[in-house]
Each structure stands twice: as C-alpha cells, then as structure tokens.
Amino acid sequence: MMTQIKETPCPGWEDDCPHLALLIQDGERRQIMPLGKRFYSIGRDRTKDIRLVSEGVSGHHASLVWLDHCYVIHSDDATDGPSCQPLTINDNPVQTSPLRPGDAIGFCHGVRARLITVRSGVPVAPPLCLLPSPAHAIAPGASLLNHFPDLMLKFDANGSILDVKPSVDPDLSRLPIGAAGQSIVSCFESSFAAKLFSYGQMASRTQSLQCFETELTVEQQKIFCEARLLPTEQGHRIAIIRNVTERKRLELELRSGAIHDTLTSLPNRRFFMEKAAHAIALKRTSAAYSFAVLFIDLDDFKGVNDSLGHRVGDQLLVEIALQLKACLRPQDTVARLGGDEFAILLHEVASGEAAVAVATRIQQALALPLLRDHPEVCSSASIGIALRTESDDSVEAMLNHADMAMYRAKALGGSQYAVFDPAIDPA
C-alpha cells in the first residue's frame, strides 16, 4: 500500500532555481520558453515539452534536467534515428553539459536557443512535488517482493520518489536511495535520471511499458542496467531497475566469438566480408571513396608445422597477426580467413602505389625472426592486391581477384606481391 501524499512546492526549488527561460530561434519562429520544471523533453515530436520544428531535429532530441543548482542538457540517443548534427554548447559539440545563463545551444542547422534569466515578475510556476506526509513511513513491500533482486521506485512527473522497494543486488544496493521525498536526480547520475524522466513520460503518455538499457556508475564502478517504466495512477511512474551486467558480458563474449578468430583474436572471414560489403556500398554512393583488398598466403607454413609442430605453428600465426596489425592504420581491417590465409581491407587508398607500399611493408616485417625460442624461423608471404573497379560488384569478386593475383605472386617464387590484372590473371 502506497503512502499518503500531499502537494507542496519542491524543497529548495525556489532558492535553487532562478527565473530562467530558453530563447529559441526555430527557423522563422522566435519564442521564449519559461523554465519551471525539473525535467523537459525536447524534440520534433509534438508531444515533447519543448517542440522544435525542423527536419534536422529527431523525435526525442535532448533532455533538460535540473541538477546541482543548474539545468543539465543531454543529447538523447533516440530510437527514431540520429540527428543530422550533434548538440553544441557555445559551438562546441557535447553529449552532456551543464547550462549557465548566456549559453548558446545548437540543436541543428537553423535551430538554436540561449538560456536567459528573466524578470522576477514573469510568472514561472515552480513544480509541485508529491511528498509523503511526515507521519507516514514507506510501507514495506510484500514478503515475496522482499526477495526480488530488482530495485523498484515509484516517482511523480517531477522526479520526486514516492515509494521504494530496495534491491538485494549487491551493486544496486549501494545507490544512495533513502527515504521517500528524494529526487531521482540526487540518486542517479544525470544521464540515467534523464532517461528515467524521458521513458517515464513516454510510458504515461502511451499507457504502456517502456524499456531501456544503459550503463550506470555506482561508486566509480560501471554496471549495466535494464530499466522498465510502467505508468500508474495520477500520472506517477514505476521504475523496475535490474542489474544485467553479467548478461551483457556474456552477450559481448558471444558476439566477439562470432566475429573473431579464437587463435589470433583478429576478425574472422564473416566480419571481413561484412566490412568489405560496406566498402562496396559506400563506393557506389561516393565516387571520391576508394579501397583495396589484399589476400595474403604464407609461404611454406606447412613446413613449420611439420618440422616444429602445430604449437609452434600457432605461435607463429599469432606473431604474424600482430605484425599485420602493426603495418596498418587504425581504420584498416585485417582478418584471418582460415589456416595461413589473411585478408586486408584498405580504406581511402589514393592509388595502387599506396596499396603496394602496404604490401612491401608487410613483406619487410615478416622477413624478421618472430619467435624468440626459434630465431631460425623466418616467414614470408605471397600477397595479391585487388583495386576496386566498376566490374567488382561483390565482395566475392574482389576477394577472388586478389586471390588470383596472390597465386601469380606465389608462382613467381613467393615472398612478393602482385596486382590483379585482368589481361594476365585468368577470369
């Protein structure tokens, strides 16, 4: 049973909050929006507290939260697609930032606002908080709920906590949540509180369950939480917050195993094919973009396995993977296709000479002894290079061309490169 409540002004609000307003320039429209609540949703959607009429603004573009004696603005990772431009404060891109009077906010091209102070005579109503009567304490949860691991909160539209079911999870139990009457912005970091406001507002408007997942910092420790927001009577919201850190860790491990080679930790064939497909799609839409594919096959790797054993062969593959990564830029991709075969995707290759320079650098790196316990082992590779042409309309075609060039390099004695030439290499 929830406790009795009464309407009172939010404690400290009148002292903390000056008379603030947003001066908004939205296309040809200019307006002043007085600020008097702890939370505002900002976006193109007409249901938002502050509506910005521009195609460059996403449905839920940003949030304003009153925290630590000032408004904090958050750029929202909206589910209806990213905004065309980042949120800026005084022309500096931000994700989260406190606001001071005079700060200029840029939402997108042609849509700006400035935080201003207004005359005390301008009516800006402070928000009302629903606080429990002092004579009543928070009613304990049902006996079954006492063993429920999730944190449960009931709060009003202004973020004032009305009821709490503490969590038995050791991480969530360290959150600074005490008696009713606290604001959620004093219990959670501002970005998490903004999401509770935003999704709670959506739950009340749609009268449906709303969910989100995000990181939360608890005593300098990062945990991953799932929050579920449910509407209830009088416009209140219930938040059920669960620690899903272990589940997210397992998901990341499974995803990493699906796209990475377990021996070398390089991306695998599946990952490489996806990246190369994206490069081909980008080339179709941008004539200025160029890329190249390198196919690498080690020379006489079977001899290492036969003479020194597969353990040493595996060690050599790991060292070669490290050398290949060291020869590339951060934006390039190297993957192990299988066995002793590797592939490289080079982005923004200005010419064939640039791809040849990478192949030469790889040859020089592999010519050095790579195994401390077996300095006599030196490796080399045959490298085929394929530059994207109009006829290469698939990843398979480009990889096949690089493969044919590699076989020509190997037929010439190995330890060298060859560039695919349709006049020489068989189709």
From TrEMBL:
InterPro entries xrefs: DGC-Regulatory_Protein, FHA_dom, GGDEF_dom, Nucleotide_cyclase, Rev_trsase/Diguanyl_cyclase, SMAD_FHA_dom_sf
UniProt cross-references to Gene3D superfamilies, sorted A to Z: 2.60.200.20, 3.30.70.270
Domain of life from the UniProt record: Bacteria
Residue ranges occupied by any GGDEF domain in the UniProt entry: 289-422
CDD domains: FHA, GGDEF
Name of the protein in question: GGDEF domain-containing protein
